[in-house]
Amino acid sequence: xxxxxxxxxxxxxxxxxxSYAFREMDEAGNITSAQxxxxxxxxxxxxxxxxxxxxxxAADHLGEE
Length: 65
Prior knowledge:
Helix content is about 30%, strand content about 50%. By secondary structure, the protein is of the alpha+beta class. Strand 2 (about 15-25) and strand 3 form a beta hairpin. It is elongated, with a radius of gyration of 15 Å.
């Protein structure tokens, strides 16, 4: 079983890059591997819309300070 421990999005030359960190656990909940990472380029329009919404929310939050 995998447990996501972090997610980030950055702009890369190829497009929006989604990176994530996770831990692997066994059926008893014991961590069998930590600090694993992965990434992919977002291509799906629904995912790109969600990323745009998060980026807009962050930009809006900056304006509230």
